Amino acid sequence: QDGYLEVVGFANPLHFGFSRARLSQGFFIAQARHVEVAFVEPQPVQVDGEPWLQQPGRVEIAPARRAVVLLPAAPIR
Hints:
This protein is mostly beta strands. It has one helix spanning 13-20; strands spanning 5-9, 27-32, 35-39, 43-47, 50-54, 57-61.
């Protein structure tokens, strides 16, 4: 809710798998509003639940616009 992205890392794919099973957790790298990552060789990545093999290059990550949620004036019964 604060507009910051949390960047975490994993030692290897097995470490990541353990984190998905809640047997481990990633290590904190940073919090930022904008993240740039440069890949010099293909690397497995996962962003927002979507895994893929990232080819060499640069990736920029920034939050999208926020959705506006309207609440009803009266309680819903």
